[in-house]
Structure formats: C-alpha cells, structure tokens
Design brief:
This protein has 164 residues and is α+β, with helices and mostly antiparallel strands. Helix content is 29%, strand content 24%. A four-stranded antiparallel β-sheet has the order 1-8-3-6. A four-stranded antiparallel β-sheet has the order 2-7-4-5, with no helix packed on it.
C-alpha cells in the first residue's frame, strides 16, 4: 500500500489499521466502476491497473495504480460527476461512507491524516481544473501530484515507534 499517496505519511501500523475500513474487489477490463449521475457512497483506491475517467463522454483523465477516486461520495450526497471505467484488470480497495466514518471516529489522529491528504488532493485537482480551462481541449491529461504536497502537521511515519 506504500505506493498510495493517500497513506504516504502514515506509519505502517496506521496503514494496516486504515485498510480494515476497506474491502478488496477485482474488476475486469472495460467494466464501469461507477457511472456519471448515479448515486452511491463508495470511495475507491486503485491497487493495480488503470482506469479512465470520463465526463459527458469525454476523457478527463487516466488514473494509475495508487490513485483514488470517488472521494466526493464520502463528503457529499451529490450524484457522481464522472464515470470511471477500467482500462485493464484492476484490483481496488473500496470503502462505504458510513463504515469508513465509523472507523475514523474511533481513530481521531488517523482520521486527521486521512482527511488532510484527501483535502490536499482535492485542492490540487481544483488548481488543475483552472489550468485545464486555459489549455486546448485535446490536451486533457492531468498530473495532480506534480506540484507536491505541503507536509502534514500530523507527522509522518519517520521517527514513529510504529516503524520499528
């Protein structure tokens, strides 16, 4: 799980604890994970494979392993704003909103780290939305992590007794 940016600043024991809030699924190539306009409360982390994000039948992005999507479903009740389809066989971690909330309520520091990284990713995606508006439509690939992240105020795995 260390290749997943969402948990990069967590200790190994925190990553293991957080993984308890997720279940693993496998999806074959060409299948939809979620569809634009549908209502659901699932959040996904891509362990293996790549997925294509489309909106209004236009490709918005291709996400590689380590990426996450569907996070707005754990933050709001709005319908899905895009569709996600697998480009190859994918293994994913999936968490349902209520189960994830219950887990994180029992783990306040872990919750703070989780939502900090989620907020950083959403902030970068918003920045890229504005940059993309100034690009020609044929240049639609994005790289949300190219600017990096400000270190979490909640501490990272280095120096933690959990890493020993």
């Amino acid at each position: 799980l260390r290749h997943i940016d969402l948990v990069r600043e967590m200790s190994m024991s925190e990553v293991v604890r957080l993984s308890q809030a997720f279940r693993k699924i496998r999806i074959e190539p060409g299948e939809f994970v979620l569809r634009e306009g549908e209502s659901s409360d699932m959040f996904y982390v891509l362990l293996e494979g790549r997925v294509e994000i489309t909106r209004n039948n236009q490709r918005v992005n291709i996400l590689p392993k380590g990426s996450h999507f569907g996070e707005m479903a754990i933050l709001s009740l709005r319908p899905r704003s895009a569709s996600v389809r697998t480009l190859e066989a994918c293994r994913l971690l999936v968490a349902q909103r209520e189960e994830l909330y219950q887990f994180l309520q029992a783990e306040p520091m872990l919750a703070a780290k989780f939502f900090w990284k989620l907020a950083q990713t959403l902030s970068l995606r918003l920045d890229e939305f504005y940059v993309a508006a100034d690009r020609p439509p044929e240049v639609n690939m994005r790289n949300t992590l190219r600017f990096g992240h400000y270190p979490s105020p909640f501490g990272g795995p280095t120096g933690s007794s959990d890493d020993e």
